[in-house]
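Lecture notes, part 5. Sequence design as translation. It can be helpful to think of inverse folding as translation between two languages: the language of shapes and the language of residues. The source text, in structure tokens, appears below.
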């Protein structure tokens, strides 16, 4: 499954997904975000049981604010409509998968 670009128009359907959701808050100019991006893409390809989304904080400041994103990249995991885990900074694949499985 591919990564979904999340914006304010499709956020509600993403948030209420029956699958666990991983959101990657990023910006095109952010170096650490560019390091995390291929890992997030790989997780999306290998794990169809998850919904993986990316939110560009420059284009979607309201969503970034809703999640209290103060630094990027920030990864958030949503299950049953609630944020169960959130982490700022670049993370290795194992840590991201642990967040999803937690």
């Amino acid at each position: 499954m591919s990564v979904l670009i999340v914006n304010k128009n499709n956020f509600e359907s993403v948030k209420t997904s029956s699958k666990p959701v991983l959101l990657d808050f990023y910006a095109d100019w952010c170096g650490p975000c560019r390091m995390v991006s291929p890992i997030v893409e790989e997780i999306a390809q290998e794990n169809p049981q998850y919904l993986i989304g990316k939110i560009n904080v420059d284009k979607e400041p309201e969503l970034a604010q809703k999640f209290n994103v103060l630094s990027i990249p920030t990864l958030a995991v949503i299950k049953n409509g609630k944020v169960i885990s959130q982490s700022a900074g670049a993370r290795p694949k194992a840590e991201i998968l642990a967040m999803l499985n937690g």
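The translated text above is only one of many valid answers, since several sequences can fold into similar shapes. The chain is about 35% helix and 25% strand.
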